[in-house]
Write a structure and sequence with these properties.
186 residues; 74% helix; transmembrane; DNA-binding; Helix-turn-helix transcriptional regulator; membrane
Length: 186
């Protein structure tokens, strides 16, 4: 919180309520100079006063401090379940060393996408594109029966691909609906 932004918010909230500094001071039992010093940045009110100011201005303390919760929406992914399915399949089913190495590469790709999603470092397009690419690679590996893959491992690959592709497919439907609604409005 910068003092300048806080002071400006105090002044804006007071003016929005059409109150003078003297009226606010009277309600808080402080001098007008004290309210002025808060709004100019010479001093800051204590927490009790901030609570009372929020009540007078009919706003929340978070809003007054500028720390109001920002809605951070993460895209819906099934990376966690896909990683779990892949890990269990990798550990539980017998496979050739080359197949284990391929499974490890897929697990690494899933882990990178999951960590990027969790830390909110990857854009939505990269997440969905990565999930789509991994899904295609998993299906093609199972379909081509690479390295004489065990049938159980083929099922694990296909199930992982389906779990990964569900949010990508539903996101496409959401995009299509948004586009159609904009055309109807326009």
């Amino acid at each position: 919180m910068t003092h300048t932004a806080f002071n400006q918010r105090l002044q804006q909230r007071r003016k929005a309520r059409r109150l003078t500094q003297q009226q606010v001071a009277d309600q808080l039992f402080v001098s007008r100079k004290t309210v002025s010093s808060w709004e100019t940045g010479r001093n800051l009110p204590d927490l009790f006063m901030i609570q009372r100011l929020a009540a007078i201005y009919q706003t929340s303390v978070d809003d007054l401090l500028g720390t109001a919760a920002r809605s951070v929406t993460r895209p819906v992914t099934m990376l966690g379940p896909a990683l779990a399915i892949m890990a269990v399949g990798r550990l539980a089913l017998p496979a050739w060393p080359a197949m284990l190495l391929l499974s490890d590469v897929f697990l690494l790709g899933l882990a990178i996408l999951l960590v990027g999603w969790w830390r909110q470092r990857l854009p939505v397009l990269v997440l969905r594109g990565g999930a789509l690419i991994l899904s295609i690679l998993l299906v093609s590996a199972a379909w081509n029966n690479l390295f004489a893959m065990d049938f159980g491992l083929q099922l694990v690959y296909l199930l992982t691909a389906v779990v990964l592709i569900i949010p990508v497919a539903t996101a496409g439907g959401t995009w299509y609906r948004r586009q159609r609604n904009q055309q109807v409005r326009g």
